[in-house]
User: Fold this.
Amino acid sequence: MKILEDRIQSEGTVTIGGILKVDTFINQMIDTELMENIGEEIVTRFSNLGITKIVTLESSGIPFACEAARRLKIPAVFARKYEYVTLDDSIYQSRIFSYTRKKEMVIRVGKGLITETDKVLVVDDFLANGSAAMGLLDILAQSGADVAGVCVVIEKGFQKGREKIEGKGIRFEALVTIDSMENGKIEFRK
Amino acid sequence: MKILEDRIQSEGTVTIGGILKVDTFINQMIDTELMENIGEEIVTRFSNLGITKIVTLESSGIPFACEAARRLKIPAVFARKYEYVTLDDSIYQSRIFSYTRKKEMVIRVGKGLITETDKVLVVDDFLANGSAAMGLLDILAQSGADVAGVCVVIEKGFQKGREKIEGKGIRFEALVTIDSMENGKIEFRK
Assistant:
């Protein structure tokens, strides 16, 4: 997705810890026109599959999950990473390791929100080691829902996430794939 | 907003702790058609004011902030409630008390994302005691931005939030106001 690559190249920065910072248009401030383009691209790649719900993880995936779901006229669901007062015992949960937070977290979705009659697309902002995506897929497996695929906005192609997802026989799409960020220089996959 | 009142009346539940649970359409699963209606209503109430950004707090306010911002063709910004790896020292921050989490939290926005040239509308899913909204207004005061108002989807009208906001001379709008949830019975303001 050329406009997204251009934007990352011009505004993204690589921190000393090797984290890609895209806070000005994806991650804390959201360029809503770009959000529309991203939603459109997600829907184009997963059209005519009978998807009934889009699932993401709070917080940064929510704008893109909601925009794609809005275009498909279906609901979006976000798994909670943090304790929340209305989550009771009737939940699916999975343990993930957050590399950006350097700790284990439990992600949770209310049981009534995803069922075995659903066909679900997983959407997130980033894929790196795939821990969050694998946690969401674990929750979807518990629910009995069918999985249409996983679509992320930005893939770090030099990490293992895609391999893990495709290794489960699940379709994976990234709107852009970064092959290297060495010395702060961002290189996209051709 | 009649369709929202009807939906809350039919699907919302009041927990024993007095929390309104709207997880099936607002809070964990998002009905994206309702999200469009909510975005439209927010934009109608704050039209022709020259708003340049919408600001919310992660996570549940994000869908409505982004949808209203999309319609206004402006960016949405969410304050972070949780530690995040790309947040450095160049931030505005404010301390809030979360009643749903029963603890103090620090909310943060990167300094570059809101400036004194901005005119900002604050959007959130709920207003009760107004701690989150007051924290966002504190951050906006630090940034020097002009505040167009605060708009929430659901106001608990029997708590003090609105009083605090209007007490600062800031315009407040709620799409629906609940006057009572006693004995689990939800009563809306006429």
